[in-house]
Amino acid sequence: MLIERYIYLAIALFCIGIVGVLARRNAIIIFMCIELMLNAVNLLLVAFSKMHYAVGVAKNATAGIDGQLFVFFIMVVAAAEVSVGLAIIVMMYRNTHSVDVNFLNRLKH
Amino acid sequence: MVPVLLIVIPLVSGLLGFLIKQEKNAKVWSLLTSIITMVVSILGIAVLHKPEYLQADVAWLPDLGSRFSLTMDGMSKMLCLLTGLAYPGIFIATWNSTYKNGYQFYALMLLMQTGLMGVFVASDALLFYFFWELALIPAYFLCSIWGGERRVAVTFKFFIYTFVGSLLMLVAIIWVYFHTPDHSFAMSSFYKVNLPGSTQGWLFWLFFLAFAIKIPLFPFHTWQPDTYEQSPTAVTMVLSGIMVKMGVFGILRWLAPVVPVGLWGYGDPAASMCVIGMIYGSIVAMQQDDLKRFVAYSSIAHMGLMGLAIFVTSSIGIQGVMIQMFAHGINIIGLWIVVELIERQFHTRKMSELGGLAQKAPSLAIMLVVVSLANVALPLTNAFIGEFMMFNGVFGSKASNYHYIFMVVGGLSIILSAVYTLNMLQKVLFGNTSPLTANALDLKINEKFVLAVLLIGIVVMGVYPKPMIEATRHAVDAIYSKMFVKLP
Amino acid sequence: MNAIVISAVLGVVMMFCGVFTNSKPAVRTVAIIGLLALVIVNVLDMGGYHFFNVNVKGMLSFDIFGLLFNTIAFGSTWIYFLLSGRDMERVGVNLAEYFALIFFVLCGIAIVSSFTSLLMLFLGIEIISIPLYILTGSDKRNLKSNEAALKYFLMGSFSTGIMLMGITLLYGVKGSFNIDVIRMGTTNLTPMLAAGLLLLLFSMSFKVSAAPFHFWTPDAYDGSPTVFTSFMATIVKVAGFIAFIRLFEGCFGDVQKQWQLLVAIIAAATLFIGNITAVFQQSVKRMLSYSSIAQAGFMLFALVAMNDMAKDGMIFYAAAYSLATIGIFAILLKMKDYTFEGFNGLAKRQPVLAATNTIFLLSLAGIPATAGFWAKFYMLSAAINNGNVMWLVIIGVLCAAISAYYYFRVIQAMYFKEGEAEPQEVETTSGFKGLLIAIAAVVVILGIFPHWLLDQLHNLFYL
Amino acid sequence: MDISQILFYALSALALGSAIMVVISRNPVHSVLWLIITFFAISGHYILMNAQFLGIVNLIVYAGAIMVLFLFVIMLMNLNAETEPQKNKWLKLAGVVAGGCLLLVMVAALKQAEVKGQVAMLGTGDIGLIKNLGQALFTDYVVPFEISSVLFLSAMVGAVVIGKK
Amino acid sequence: MNNVLHLVWLVPFFPLVGFLITGLLRKQLSKPLTTIIGSGMVLASFIVSVLLFTEVKNGNTYVANLFDFISYGTLSIPFAFQIDQLSSLFLLIITGIGFLIHLYSSSYMHEENNEHFGRFFSYLNLFVFSMLLLVLGANYVIMFIGWEGVGLCSYLLIGYWFKNIEYGNAAKKAFIMNRIGDLGFLIAIFWLIAKLGTVTYTTHDGGGVFDLYQKLTRTDVIGITMLLFVGATGKSAQIPLYTWLPDAMAGPTPVSALIHAATMVTAGIYMIARSNILYTMAPETQSVVAAIGLATALFAATIAIKQNDIKKVLAYSTVSQLGYMFLGLGVGAYTGAVFHVMTHAFFKALLFLGAGSVIHAMHHEQDIRKMGGLAKKLPITHITFLIGCIAIAGIPPFSGFFSKDEILAFAYAKDPLYYYLGVAGAAMTAFYMFRLYATTFRGTFRGTEEQKHHLHESPAAMTIPLIVLAILAAVGGLIGIPESLVPDAHKLEHFLEPIFAKSNEIKMAALPEHHTEINLMVISVALALAMIIFAWVRYSKKPELNEPAGFGKVLADKWYIDELYNYAVVKPLQWLARFMNSFFEKKVVDGIVNGVGRMVTYTSRQVRLLQSGLVGNYVLLMVLSMLALFVVKFFIKK
């Protein structure tokens, strides 16, 4: 499969994630869209990993493996981030009974 | 050794001054310090002629090629002398003023002296910049704490304005630094730099702005009347008597020799600004009712002439500037002293509320008349020498195409200065007394003493200027030759 | 490696401290001593005493630049603990955890100052960020703190996404995450490299709060407990810069000409927005947030110029800026009212605080004879030496003048305005004052002999 | 067009479609469900590229753990109704336009990507196998692996700080 | 070389000492002591001057270099005094008449208290000092010092009664008008320096201005002489800068006599006479000088006809007479001009002092319409005043006749028109002087009873100077009897010959034939006599008491020149100053500076709105910036 298709696909997913961040007001959904962005990155990383594998396999049997390892770390970090992020959102909700980011405007100017 | 002492004495004394909480003691302490500084500066100009006494050079920032190097040439000597002489005079003349937390006032005054001395003796561009800014900070606090009603805003404007200028100068200094052959901030290296004409052009403007704001030249002057008006008079004396000379000094020491081609290229526009400033300052001075603003605008006119004399590039004109820097310092401090005396006695500076002082306080009147006349450069006063040489330089300039126009238009300021000065004298001294001045008292003995010394100085310099000319001649020659040697 | 391991261990130690003792002074003492130890082991690392000979497999590289920076960061943090440690108690009950989180952040800082793999950069930044989200939101019942945390978190994650996309694109071209590999053979910014570079530029700009990616900064700094703002605005911020410089010099140092303009634009925008917006602030804390943005604009000069002077200057800037800002925040923490009016007449009530605060503010404004002057001097010199970006230099100095405007407002309030009769600030100990004076003295000494500190370190190890 | 290509397009369409649904669903719970579908599609891509381990992990960690956590939070907050008030329409439009433009710009920028024409091998190679990945993870990548423990520690402490009453 | 000439520095030194003593100790010294010191110093100067004069008469001249004043590069301006024929003559006039007037003042100013009396004498001494510097200076710069110095003293003395704002204004006007002239002088000096590198008149080695004049181009010499003449018009009250002189009468009368009649105002003539060689080189300037001089002579005379203030009449008469001197200079009659300076000093000082005596007697009444019939009450004053009037009217053998007719004769030779106009002026002079005389001394007394009661002759200290001056005015002209009447009798011309030798070499000013000259004299004397008789008869009987009307009013109001200046120069300048101060300075210059500040705060207020507090907006802005930077990087080709 040609690599540019993966590139376009990943960028499209990535941008959908961005649009989600821009267009939604619910903090949780925004957060989900960010996760979508991360997944787009993961997908592209794996694709590149396979691409580099195809190029380098002759010299090195594990060529391209670092891309997949990176994905692994991204997942690790994402998990940690989610735990903290949701904790913050819950804390916020406890105080304001809302997850609408537009209510977050005490701090401005 | 001498330059180091000139910096260190006021610095140490000023820092210690913060520990003397009693105003009276602080006064005595700072007066003593300033007298010692004065003695050192007199020694420097009159007695110690060996170069090793007049130089100091210590490693400072080896990586940057900057050294803590100080040199006193004729120009430095004279301005150091002015600073040295002015301080005791100011302290004595304002002896009767009291300040809240006075010890801080005196300490800051001494710190400001450190900065001023440093500017005049630094022979390293970075060091120069350092002192240039250091002189400003105490001035800022002095004006803002002990000034008039609008002091905070006014001083702030002064500070920001000059700060902008200095930062632009810093850019120029760094630029030149990178183009010195040996990557050094030393003055000698700066003088060796050979920059192409176009570069010198914009470097000229960067330097020029810094100095023009400080001097101040039209149209960068608007901080000045406000600041002079709002500052405590002792500070105004330092500002107008000494600090504005920093700008002129800077032009002579750093602008002219470093970017001579730029100066040629843009000398005429710069000189035009000066000429406009001379006329403009004079005309606006005519309308002032507040004595401090009056002196401020007249000072703008006079400083404009100094700028003009430099920018038309003539050796005698520059010599005149040297003389005039000193003379103007003395005269304007004298004027401020009188203004301060008037304000302290009558609690007003408005000419319209004064009048008839000549009847009630003849000594004061005489002092004011003489100082004012010196200020308008009447012959046999010190300022005449300077103005004569400066105008002579302007007229005879070979560098400027418009020097005749500059002469004639600038010459009008001679007339206008007479107009506004006489107006002022008439409003303040002559006519009948006003309710305020009906019971005016004459000068006290310390005031008489300072003013008498000033007057003697004014006349002696005006009659026999030769020592001053001799003292600065070499410095002028050096500057002048640099302005012409460095053709790219 | 010393620093990374020890700081992580210290984090764990602090966690257990919280379990085993309820004595706040004890916890604080442990943290302070621990941090001192951290500084020492890091300094020893510089001297060649490596305690942990881990095979890092090309993931990290401990060069003198990074270690020097670590020393400054840890040293600043130590001063910060001394000055403001007591104030953390006022935020909430989890004192030990706060310290633990700060140690984890320091671990992250040690990583980003020595990474050679983009993976480590990513991890390091996340290790810095996640505790900061928490610290920002640590004042749980304060809505502003909540809000700040959520905003910071959402935008931080967003920028992480951007950064990962950038890293991915680089990987796509070069097939490796190692910065040396990425640098190799890069003589031209091909489209995908350029896109990766841009995305990394955006996300790193976000981390160092450079405009137009700075929006989180004022809100997060303003909302978080002041004691942590101090930490975030100083040590963490300059750590971001170290990462930024390492990344861009490491990966794209050879093609600097091709991205210089972009960074210059960002620097100009940062200077402009930071300074301009700070002018109109009513709260000193928020003003300091904007000022930190403005200072970031100057630090970006290092990236624009990217020469030796810039790197030296960056280290110096980090020290000068951190010292002054920590000092100001420490004083701010003693105030009940964070508006400018709150400072009115401070000079009369607390002359020491006012005087030291003045020195710090002068340093931030870049007035000679303070460390801040040299910081700006180096940055301007670097940019002027580069020669291509004189316009940026001029913008820089004009903005520096504007910055004087808002810094001096504080000075004006302290010295020239009449304040309330009764004290508006928390009691301070003489130790606190003494420390402030010491810091101010360092600021001034650095302002007169900028190489003093470095020379001392130098003498200690290399002679 | 062989089967893997068909699968690629199908999965891609599924991923994009469900991603769009994530964004446009009014109900948060629906968004979560659509996102899970997206993750499945992406896992499908992984498997297609012979990265089985990542495919599984993706399902377990993302679709399984993380999304459940999301769902849990949404339920906890009782947000399953379509409670979100209408955001300013213009702002929404601006968001969509901006995102769309970014997509266009990036696509345009990467049209001439230097890797163009290279192939990401589908269904071959064993680098995606757990054995190889594990070996690399505990040799070359041991440092980051250990470091990520610090990350988790800090997240843990953070959760404690935030969560403790 | 005689040693006496080395004493030249004593001449200005005495008055300087007098100034310092009377000035500093003015409160301590009693009035007699002040008088003795003040007058004594001038007397000492006079004695030295006489000694010098006798030496100079023997043909010795001397330049005394006291010290270097301004010396820079090749330019060297020594503080040097030059004693030669011209300066020694002026020394005599200045110190001689100066002494008399000091003496006179001691009595005239007796009403002042100690302090002010001392102040007055110190000013007078300072004036004498400055005037001596002016004439003794061996270069233009020293002359300029004296030049400005006398201006200052004039200012101080006009404003001597400083409580009166009007007087203050008059003083100011004098100083400022003088400064306008001074600027011209100053530029001329610079011009000389630029072209010749020196301002010294002459040196042994031929390095002075008068030695090197041939190096000057035509433009230079015209420019320099014109600028010097501008200086002269200021100091010597010529059109267009004459208006200060009548106002200067605000000062005490001895001041008017000394400064504004006898000495200072003749400085311009001295200067041009000193620079005669340059003027001879510039015939164009000479024509201008002659024209301006003649115009001033006529113009001032017309005004004098209708003035009723005794001092104003004399003031305009002074302006008019100065015009004659410039006419003389303009036609090349340098000796004649100097001669007229001398005779004018005698009779005009006399007239002013006489007027002072009258005013003194009338208790500071100056309006001649309120006088009349004073001849009997003030006999000495009357006689001396009459002598002065005859002298100024040009009736032989009184002094004015010789000097004025010498000038007119030379003018005739140059252009008969000059002569006719000059004679017309002379006739007017005779007319208004005798109008003044007749109204004041003839007829009946028109003052108040109280004034009448107190009328008395002035004390001896005032009358003695009058008598001395009357004698001089009567016989002083005899040193310049024209060749046409008695051959070889013009002593002055022979005496001054060395001064004008170079001019004469180039172009000797011609005199008409002897018989023509005699005819001219007859015409002018006849006209003057006719006018005298007409005025005497007319105003003795029926003095002009009403306010003038019609053209008379125009004359009485001085052709409205002051008003013209007021509207053309003063008012616009004030308006400009107000505009600059209240609008330009505040709104434009400061406005821009403050505007920058305001712009910053305004921008600040706007920019901070970006920080809307909404995450959505933040992200949107970030994305948009990303877009923009992408576009910059990828789609903008450099």
Automatic annotation (TrEMBL), chain A:
Topology versus the membrane:
Multi-pass membrane protein
Q: Where in the cell is it found?
A: Cell membrane; Membrane
**One GO molecular-function entry:** NADH dehydrogenase (quinone) (non-electrogenic) activity
What is the top EC class of this enzyme, as a single word? translocase
Q: Look up the EC number in the record and give it.
A: 7.1.1.-
One GO process term, biological-process aspect: ATP synthesis coupled electron transport
Entry keyword annotation includes Methyltransferase:
no
An annotated GO cellular component of this protein is: plasma membrane
Give the catalytic activity: a quinone + NADH + 5 H(+)(in) = a quinol + NAD(+) + 4 H(+)(out)
Instruction: Say which family it is in.
Output: Belongs to the complex I subunit 4L family.
PANTHER family, per this entry? NADH DEHYDROGENASE SUBUNIT 4L-RELATED, NADH-UBIQUINONE OXIDOREDUCTASE SUBUNIT ND4L
* Subunit note: NDH-1 is composed of 14 different subunits. Subunits NuoA, H, J, K, L, M, N constitute the membrane sector of the complex.
- Function summary: NDH-1 shuttles electrons from NADH, via FMN and iron-sulfur (Fe-S) centers, to quinones in the respiratory chain. The immediate electron acceptor for the enzyme in this species is believed to be ubiquinone. Couples the redox reaction to proton translocation (for every two electrons transferred, four hydrogen ions are translocated across the cytoplasmic membrane), and thus conserves the redox energy in a proton gradient.
Q: What is this protein called?
A: NADH-quinone oxidoreductase subunit K
What is the scientific name of the source organism?
Niastella yeongjuensis
Q: Gene that codes for this?
A: nuoK
TrEMBL record, chain B:
Q: What membrane topology does this protein have? A: Multi-pass membrane protein
Which InterPro entries does the record associate with it? NADH_Q_OxRdtase_chainM/4, NADH_UbQ_OxRdtase, ND/Mrp_TM
The transmembrane segments are 6-21, 28-48, 68-93, 105-123, 129-146, 158-178, 202-222, 234-255, 261-282, 294-316, 322-342, 363-385, 405-425, 445-464
The entry's cellular-component GO terms read: endomembrane system; membrane
Print the keywords alphabetically: Membrane, Transmembrane, Transmembrane helix
Principal place where this protein is found? membrane
Q: Can you supply a Gene Ontology BP term from the record?
A: ATP synthesis coupled electron transport
| Residues in NADH:quinone oxidoreductase/Mrp antiporter transmembrane domain copies | 122-408
Family per record: Belongs to the complex I subunit 4 family.
- What is the protein's given name? NADH dehydrogenase
Instruction: Name the species this protein comes from.
Output: Niastella yeongjuensis
From TrEMBL, chain C:
| Compartment(s) | Cell membrane; Endomembrane system; Membrane
Q: Name one Pfam family in it.
A: Proton_antipo_M
Quaternary structure? NDH-1 is composed of 14 different subunits. Subunits NuoA, H, J, K, L, M, N constitute the membrane sector of the complex.
**Keywords noted in UniProt:** Cell membrane, Membrane, NAD, Quinone, Translocase, Transmembrane, Transmembrane helix, Transport
Q: Does this UniProt record's set of keywords contain Phosphoprotein?
A: no
EC number(s)? 7.1.1.-
Q: Organism classification, top ranks?
A: Bacteria, Pseudomonadati, Bacteroidota, Chitinophagia, Chitinophagales
Q: Does the keyword Cell membrane apply?
A: yes
Q: Which GO terms describe its molecular function?
A: NADH dehydrogenase (quinone) (non-electrogenic) activity; NADH dehydrogenase (ubiquinone) activity; quinone binding
Q: What does this protein do?
A: NDH-1 shuttles electrons from NADH, via FMN and iron-sulfur (Fe-S) centers, to quinones in the respiratory chain. The immediate electron acceptor for the enzyme in this species is believed to be a menaquinone. Couples the redox reaction to proton translocation (for every two electrons transferred, four hydrogen ions are translocated across the cytoplasmic membrane), and thus conserves the redox energy in a proton gradient.
**Where is it mostly found?**
membrane
Question: What is this enzyme's catalytic activity, as reactions?
Answer: a quinone + NADH + 5 H(+)(in) = a quinol + NAD(+) + 4 H(+)(out)
Topological relation to the membrane, as annotated: Multi-pass membrane protein
Query: So which residues are the signal peptide here?
Result: none
Question: Which InterPro entries does the UniProt entry name for this protein?
Answer: NADH-Q_OxRdtase_suN/2, ND/Mrp_TM
Task: Write down what this protein is called.
Answer: NADH-quinone oxidoreductase subunit N
Query: Domain named NADH:quinone oxidoreductase/Mrp antiporter transmembrane: which ranges?
Result: 117-402
User: Per the record, GO CC terms?
Assistant: endomembrane system; plasma membrane
Membership in a protein family: Belongs to the complex I subunit 2 family.
UniProtKB/TrEMBL annotation, chain D:
- Where found, per UniProt? Cell membrane
Task: Give the matching InterPro entries.
Answer: NADH_UbQ/plastoQ_OxRdtase_su6, Nuo/plastoQ_OxRdtase_6_NuoJ
Which reaction is catalysed here?
a quinone + NADH + 5 H(+)(in) = a quinol + NAD(+) + 4 H(+)(out)
Record key words, sorted? Cell membrane, Membrane, NAD, Quinone, Transmembrane, Transmembrane helix
Q: Which EC numbers characterise this protein's activity in its record?
A: 7.1.1.-
Q: Where does the sequence pass through the membrane?
A: 6-24, 31-49, 55-78, 90-110, 141-162
Membrane topology per the entry is:
Multi-pass membrane protein
> Which cellular component appears as one GO term in the record?
plasma membrane
Q: Which GO terms describe its molecular function?
A: NADH dehydrogenase (ubiquinone) activity; quinone binding
What Pfam families does the annotation carry?
Oxidored_q3
Primary location group: membrane
Q: Which family does it belong to?
A: Belongs to the complex I subunit 6 family.
- What's the stated role of this polypeptide? NDH-1 shuttles electrons from NADH, via FMN and iron-sulfur (Fe-S) centers, to quinones in the respiratory chain. Couples the redox reaction to proton translocation (for every two electrons transferred, four hydrogen ions are translocated across the cytoplasmic membrane), and thus conserves the redox energy in a proton gradient.
Name of this protein: NADH-quinone oxidoreductase subunit J
Please tell me the species this chain comes from: Niastella yeongjuensis
Lineage, top ranks: Bacteria, Pseudomonadati, Bacteroidota, Chitinophagia, Chitinophagales
